Amino acid sequence: MKYSKATNYALHTMAFLIAAAPDRPVGVQQLADKQGLSPTYLSKILTKLVKAGLIESASGANGGYRARGKKEDISFLDVIQAIEGTTSIFECCHSENPECRIHRVMLSAEDAMDQHLRNTKLADLMK
User: Fold this and answer.
1) What percentage of residues in the chain have a pLDDT greater than 90?
2) Among 106, 53, 103, 123, residue whose Cα is nearest residue 82
3) According to the model, what pLDDT value does residue 56 have?
4) CB within 8 A of 74, min separation 6: which ones?
5) Above 70 in pLDDT, residue 1?
6) Is 107 helix (H, G, I), strand (E, B) or coil?
7) Which site in 7, 90, 110, 117 is 20 to 30 Å from 60, CA atoms measured?
8) How far is 105 from 13, CA to CA, in rounded Å?
9) Is the sign of the CA dihedral 30, 35, 40, 42 positive or negative?
10) Could you count the other beta carbons within 10 Å of the beta carbon of residue 14?
C-alpha cells in the first residue's frame, strides 16, 4: 500500500503549520520553499486541507494559512483522509460475501491501521 506524494507533502505542511505561531498565517511560498515544491502544486493540497476544515486561509498582504481549531486534536488520519479520501484501500472481489475470510482479514488490518493513525496526533511530534 502506498499513499500519494500529496499526502506526504500535506503531512509535512500540517506539521509545519501546527508548529507555527497561531497569530501569523504562513504564506504558500514559504510553505512551498520549505519542501522544495512549486507554490501552484502546494496550493492544490492546501485547498483540500481547507475544505477538510484542518486549516484556514487569510487573504491580503499578510495572508497565508494556519492550522484551524485545536492543533493538538489533528491526527495523521485527518490529514490522510483530506487528501486520499475515505475509501477502503483493499477491494475484495468477493466483498458481498460476508463469509469471505480474506476480506475480513484485510478489513481488520485496515481498521487497526486507521485506529493507529487516528490516535497519532501531529502535535505530538512537535513536543
Assistant:
1) 69
2) 53
3) 94
4) 14, 18, 54, 67, 121, 122, 123
5) no
6) helix
7) 7
8) 33
9) negative
10) 24
